[in-house]
C-alpha cells in the first residue's frame, strides 16, 4: 500500500532505500520492517523470472544481513520506462497496464500458488488494522468531512461482513486466487512506449483479482496528481458476478484505509496538496452511496 502501516501522527511513505545505477538497481530494506518485505520481494522476482519473464526486474543478487543491524538488500536489473503515476494515460497505456497486471495475476500454476502465503495486508489483516485505528486514533485534528466519512465507514464496516471472525481466512471460496503484486501505486508500473513492466513486490503473495484491482484504483496515486480513468481500466478485466460484488467491498475498504492515511499526513511535511484528505473522504462517501 506504500505509505506507513500505522497512522500515529506522522506518515512514513517509504519502506526502503533505492540506489539507481545505469544498468541495475540496489534496494535496501529497513531493518525495523523485519525480514518480510525482503523475503516477499526476493520470492516474487524469483518466481516471475521463471513463470513470466520480462514483466519484472531480473534478480541479480540477494544480500542477507550479516548482523542484526545490517539491512538486507536486493540487486536487480533496471527496467526501461517511466512511471505511470503523474502522466496522462490513454488507451495504449491502460491496455498495456492491464496486460501487465493480468500477466502477474496468472503467472503461477494453481498448485504452486496454493502453497504461497497470503500477500501482506490482505482483507482480514487490513480489517484488523482499520479496527485498531478506530480504537485508538483521535480524530480531533481531522476536518469535519473526514470525521463524517470515518463515522460512515465504521457503520459500513460493521455491516459488511469483511474480516468476520467466523469467515474462513484467506481467499473467499467463490473467487479464484491470483498472484498479487500487493501495491497499487501506479509509480510501480513503468511504461516504455510499448509495454508496462512492474516493480516493487514487498507486499506480494497469494491474493484475489478483486482485491488487487481495488488496490490499484483506490490508491491515492489513481487521482493524485493526475487521475486516470479507473472505469476504463477495470473494464479491461471481465469479472465474475462474485468478483464484481467483492470488488465493490474491497474498493470501499481500501478507500477507508486511505481516509485514515491521508488524514494522518504530517501538516509540517505534507506529502499531498492541501485538501487531499477531504477529497478522499468524498471518494469514500460516493462509494458508500453507490453500494447502498
UniProtKB/TrEMBL annotation:
Domain Aminoglycoside phosphotransferase: 23-235
InterPro entries: Aminoglycoside_PTrfase, Kinase-like_dom_sf
Protein name: Aminoglycoside phosphotransferase domain-containing protein
Amino acid at each position: 500500500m506504500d505509505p506507513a502501516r500505522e497512522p500515529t501522527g506522522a506518515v512514513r511513505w517509504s519502506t526502503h532505500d533505492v540506489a539507481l545505477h545505469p544498468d541495475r538497481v540496489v534496494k535496501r530494506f529497513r531493518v525495523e520492517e523485519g525480514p518480510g518485505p525482503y523475503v516477499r520481494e526476493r520470492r516474487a522476482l524469483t518466481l516471475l523470472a521463471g513463470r513470466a519473464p520480462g514483466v519484472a526486474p531480473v534478480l541479480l543478487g540477494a544480500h542477507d544481513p550479516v548482523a542484526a543491524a545490517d539491512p538486507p538488500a536486493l540487486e536487480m536489473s533496471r527496467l526501461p520506462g517511466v512511471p505511470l503515476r503523474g502522466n496522462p494515460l490513454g488507451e495504449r497505456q491502460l491496455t498495456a497496464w492491464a496486460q501487465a497486471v493480468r500477466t502477474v495475476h496468472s503467472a503461477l500454476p494453481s498448485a504452486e500458488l496454493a502453497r504461497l502465503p497470503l500477500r501482506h495486508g490482505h482483507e482480514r489483516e487490513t480489517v484488523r488494522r482499520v479496527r485498531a485505528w478506530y480504537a485508538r486514533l483521535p480524530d480531533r485534528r481531522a476536518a469535519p468531512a473526514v470525521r463524517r466519512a470515518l463515522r460512515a465507514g465504521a457503520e459500513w464496516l460493521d455491516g459488511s461482513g469483511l474480516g468476520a471472525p467466523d469467515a474462513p481466512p484467506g481467499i473467499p471460496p467463490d473467487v479464484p486466487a491470483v498472484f498479487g503484486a500487493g501495491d497499487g501505486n501506479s509509480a510501480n508500473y513503468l511504461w516504455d512506449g510499448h509495454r508496462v513492466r512492474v516493480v516493487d513486490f514487498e507486499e506480494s503473495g497469494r491474493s484475489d483479482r478483486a482485491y488487487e484491482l481495488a488496490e490499484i484504483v483506490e490508491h491515492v496515486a489513481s487521482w493524485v496528481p493526475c487521475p486516470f480513468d479507473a472505469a476504463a481500466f477495470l473494464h479491461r478485466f471481465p469479472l465474475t458476478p462474485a468478483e464484481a460484488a467483492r470488488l465493490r467491498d474491497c474498493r470501499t475498504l481500501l478507500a477507508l484505509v486511505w481516509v485514515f492515511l491521508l488524514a494522518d499526513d504530517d501538516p509540517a511535511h505534507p506529502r499531498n496538496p492541501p485538501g487531499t484528505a477531504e477529497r478522499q473522504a468524498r471518494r469514500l462517501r460516493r462509494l458508500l452511496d453507490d453500494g447502498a
